[in-house]
Batch of 4 targets.
Target 1
Amino acid sequence: MQKNISLSINGNKISTTKSKTIVEAAEDNGIYIPTLCFLKGKLDHSNCRICTVKVDGYHKPACSTLVADNMDVITNSDELEELRKYIIELLFSTGNHICAVCQKSGDCELQALAYKYKLLFSRFEHLYPNKGIDTTSSDKIIMDKSRCILCQRCIQAIKDKDGNPFFVLQGRSNALEVVFDKEMNDIFTQEDAIEAVKQCPVGCILSKESAAFETPIGRRQFDKTEIGNKEV
Ligand code: SF4
Ligand code: SF4
Ligand code: FES
């Protein structure tokens, strides 16, 4: 039986269950904490740090930190807002993000966060990486690797029936990238492809078959509703 516990988020007492992460407990109580790499049920990776909050005075990732009794969580200080802006700007600077020509525009979580935080430019130098576009490893998806934010959601979420991931890490350091394992192309179904496109928070994984502009830009998910749809 799960234990009821109480904690404070932004000075308000809330009750929740012990197995929840801070992100989940906050969401249950109408408090939005931005996430990019978070996948429900997966606590073993915290790659983006956009969800950083203060827990009893210390910075912690809200997506992989479980709630505890009497915990004191701050999600919305000026310092945390600035940290999040910093991370978003870094992601724009280290990838190639030209939203005007991106299929994911309007459905992209990174773009939606940039809008939420009213970011018009990045204070960091744009690196304009050219990591290539993989059109051949899969007959169902393409990967524009210069847009990948290395969140690893595809690796965690898209697996065959034996639990083997279709997407894998390759290389190291600055050359680290996520690639589709072409040896698994024969068992990669259209449903897997649709789910991979959905799980990718940016426009790195794109379907070859989907009608990319079926929903016109301007009428997509985040064109209509701000990400989180609440004040941070
Ligand atoms: S992935 Fe997102 S942020 Fe990058 S170009 Fe596409 S819409 Fe813009
Ligand atoms: S391909 Fe998409 S889901 Fe996979 S690591 Fe890159 S950004 Fe994340
Ligand atoms: S969402 Fe928590 S580290 Fe990425």
Target 2
Amino acid sequence: MKTETESRPLPNGFELTELNPDFLRDPHPVLDRLRQEAPRHIHRHAHFPDAPTGLYLTRMDDVRAILSDATYQRDPRSTPPGSLARAFAPASVMIDGPHGNLLYLDGAQHRRVRSVMSRAFTPRSIQAKRAEIEALAAEMLARLAEKPEFDFIAEYAAPFPIYVIARMLGLPDEDMAQFRQWSEDLIFVFNPLRTPDQDAHQKAAFAGLEDYFARAIEARRNQPTDDLLSGIVHGEADAGGKLIDNEISTLLLLLLLAGNLTTADVFGNGLLALLEHPEEWAALKSDPSLSAIAPEEFLRFGPPVAIAARYVPEDREILGCPVKHGAAVVLSLIGANRDPETFDDPHAFRIRRGRRDHVAFGGGVHACPGAPLARLEIEVTLNLLARHYPALRLTAPATRDRPTLGFVGLSRLMIALN
Ligand code: HEM
């Protein structure tokens, strides 16, 4: 006879996304259950009956095994009609010609764009910006400290990464307000429940940024400078040749889409965890040098990217399960980061853990190239908070009600610095 737990149906499809209010509030009870009862969960989407049945993986070892296998696909154009890859692909990546959206490219096409970006956007070029990033963070926090309370998400976590990447790209200060507005409006694209007004804003942001980037690319082509944008425009790909305009502007949009909401979310998730664990905040205040390793626990405990998806290149057996060509293998990054086989007491938040072997940044050929920048932004912020704002505290319960598919973050986090 089956126990009650065994007979409860396992969640599937959108139930395992932020469109499910319970999952949005706290996905871990469900992910823990899947990891224990069905770590290689047969995954179906009722809304996509033609899509081949896929897998939903929650164990760290399984997630790593798929991430490190470059034979899995990301390009929706290489999957058969009816696949989830096609259903979820942005229109801009379904074109016949080349596009520069690394997330949706495989093999040689991926290496071509990634090699140009990797040469321009190196850990060294990021570290070279440390003093500038510190100065920007200090200035923003000092201004916010004058307020009795403020929303950390809207006033720091969201704009700070936008300003940082804008400066790295070499955009002039006078364009910053407009650039910030567009960058923030882009994010509505991830919200399938966006209002008509938000939809209009996201469309206008894409159009505005494309036009803005077209002009900036042209200017750098005529007159190279020493910024990231020039590095991308003039960079040579591994196999030779330079990126064309469409590839460059898609890549730039991706830097904003992949870098801004993610960093903002990890700031929010991590700061909330820190303030909800007063002993951890006290430890950081008494030893601010812990800010060098604390970002790893922010990323492990509160990763902003919920899942990574890979598509199966031909009928094959995966981890003992037969799976069809074009099926989606969904890797739960938030689930893997709480795997008790990998992390001792995984639901505990401990800033001294210092474990870099989480999968918040994915892995394999698509591993996040922005990781050094995100780590640096979190580190300098924590260092400043610990040194200068010991009275930092929550002033209201945090709000987690944002149904952005695949991204886990707060919509509001009210705090006071003094
Ligand atoms: C805490 C912040 C961040 C997190 C947690 C994060 C997470 C991720 C993850 C999980 C992937 C891989 C997705 C997949 O394999 O399907 C990824 C890819 C990517 N990220 Fe990040 N990211 C962050 C910040 C950034 C920043 C700051 C930038 C750049 C400014 C950036 C640029 C990219 C790009 C371009 C890719 C695509 C790489 C490829 O497909 O080859 N990310 N990121």
Target 3
Amino acid sequence: MSSVSDDPNEPDAENGDDEEQVSALDRRSLSEIHQEIRDTYTADDRPWVIGYSGGKDSTTALQLIWYAIKDLPDEEQTKPIYVISSDTLVETPKIVDHITSTLENVNEYAEKQDLPFEAHKVYPDVSDSFFVNLIGRGYPAPNQTFRWCTDRLKIDPADNFIVDKVSEHGEVIVILGARKAESKTREQVMNLHSIDGTVLSRHSKFANAFVYTPIEDWLVDDVWDYLMQVDCPWGKDNRDLAALYQEADDECPMVIDTSTPSCGDSRFGCWTCTVVEEDKAMENMIDAGDGWMEPLLEFRDLLKTTQDPKKKSTFRELKGRRFGRVKEKNNGGTGIIPRAYKFEFRQDLLRKLLETEKKVNELRNEDQEYLELIRDAELKEIRRIWRQEEADWEDSVPRIYNEVMGEDLDWAQDDLGAFTAEEAEVLNEVCNRHDVPPKLVKRLLNLEREHHGMKRRAAIYNKIDAIFREEWGTVEEMVAGIEGEEPENWEYDADIEALMK
Ligand code: SF4
């Protein structure tokens, strides 16, 4: 990935290489590049899949291919060229608009000009979405060392598309707008996978996929020179793209395999991204007049706050999700490894997210479409996870949704919904009287319900055993004996409103 200065025509100090770099366009003319593209396209019947991020590099690659293929006789335009773009569902809204309208134009112009391009957006599965993981399962906001999002939100959806096309056609060629000048690491990875005597390289993951990088030798100046001099063939204006760069000051690449630079280093990715220290892109957009984005920035900054090492014990669980055990730091550290976000905090986060959605839409102009920050399917999945894993008898998702949005969704009644808030209240009272953790009893009752009526009940005993093996003591008991721990640090007493000021 590259970073550019405010002026898109300014040279970019992207790879820090001291050697003088020679423009690719000085070495090869555009017509030679078009010819290479045509030769590669007509050499076999493997379909092409172009990874399009909406940024300058993938726009350049797509534009070059468009012009090259347009000049082929109709009878040689035989194989499909799929243009795919990952929508993480938490993309910065202005970037989504840019990508969506580009893909629509690509399809419209391809049909009008009878070209073999076909544009698609690819999305993460509901269960893999950002908010289902963050709020539903309590994954902490991603950082450099725990960047759980890129695979789930970007790589897997693109991989699924590639695998689907491989099963349909046998093999595919993936086109990326990657450039060696982006970084030394990028150059090394690209060289590692190259295949001698061909412009193709091996895909780092799939044996039946190959990669073609038509602008691999281009410098950032080549890219902007080209985009400023050659009109966009699908009816867009490349100057609008340059303007978007001036606001965002960077781009998130189309992450299609693990050799692609991390989008987490970029400032042009998801609006929720906490891998970067500050979201310069959103700040610039707000400064440039998009004040309605301010609540989004506040929500992102709230997530960032939870990464403060001093605040981790406020927001994070002591016990791990899978085995319910407390784990001590190793590798010389002292204290406890903080786990998933606490359930109470996740409930607060859901409320805050819905309030953010409301506020953003109140601030947007009347001619702007309603901006949905979390989809109904995600809310339903979060509800399912909470009811199952957190024994959420109070059924907090519909309650919080109703309190904030003033309406109800079409909530399905599931088996787990058999226990109610009233029953939870009675159970809490009885458990407190007898000094038994209410969640332990709820989990056991949920388990019994799940297995109710089953002929074979052997599995339930192992599951009961696993529940009892979890840590059910008080915070003091759980942290006792762990060096460097202060028991009171682990209570949840966050005032989210105060944190956001
Ligand atoms: S932009 Fe940030 S949040 Fe989005 S996938 Fe990349 S690293 Fe994750």
Target 4
Amino acid sequence: MRVKDKVAIVTGGAGAIGREISKLLAIEGAKVVVADLNVEEAKKVVDEINASGHEALAVDLDITKVDKAKQLVEVTLDNFGQIDILVNVAGGSTGPSIKTKIDFFAQSDKERGEEIVNLNLLGTLNCARAVINHMIERHTGKIVSISSTSGTIGMLKGVEYSAAKAGIIGFTRALAKEVAPYGINVNCISPGIVGTPRVLAMVAKERIEEWAKGIKLGRLAKPEEIASVVLFLVSDESSYITGQNIIVDGGLSLGPAGY
Ligand SMILES: NC(=O)c1ccc[n+]([C@@H]2O[C@H](COP(=O)([O-])OP(=O)(O)OC[C@H]3O[C@@H](n4cnc5c(N)ncnc54)[C@H](O)[C@@H]3O)[C@@H](O)[C@H]2O)c1
């Protein structure tokens, strides 16, 4: 087992990618706090983990609220006594936290920018800030955040989202420098396009096929292919990696065909 007896928090743990991360960390020996705005879905993930003989707890979380992030840490410590791992997954360019609609920048307004940055960037900072002093005191910890290739190559109709996800990469590098003396590793992962139910429902089949042609491996990612990289980054196998952005995009960002 690669994270035996560790305690892990997964924000957005009820979502498509978050649930695969939660389940994998539990199978690999961690006690997992599945934290999500949608606590009913989080409970279903916990039931599934418990049914397979592993330990988990569902917690109601809104990452945009500082008090909720603090409560998450308190509840985790009350139940499991320590926090070894924080995986920041909650985010997105649509979904329950976002009221404005996805559109070209020319059609967008300040409200769109605030919502997207507040959820994807400031929400991630809120959760990291809530756990960091505990990790510093214990001289150990792993923080992994989910950025996106939109943060490095940009996403059409995703100017605010791309800016927020690029912010996660900067946050990762800077925090890694600050907390390295305390034995804390801070990294992020940039998935390309993941074939989650939300993506598959939002995008026409022909468009998905078009996207797949631009991906060197010729297909979208599976959520499990992101989860396995998270597991690597929170396990001892990656003990000498910090401040890095691991791109998991099937070659999406490698440039044009034939070059
Ligand atoms: N799906 C993709 O193609 C893709 C690609 C790159 C990066 N990502 C990133 O991966 C992460 C997970 O994406 P997903 O595809 O699993 O999305 P998802 O919508 O399936 O899951 C997101 C989860 O976050 C929760 N959430 C939303 N707002 C929240 C808040 N304020 N507080 C707490 N929880 C909240 C939702 O309830 C949901 O369970 C996101 O950060 C997304 O930006 C996704």
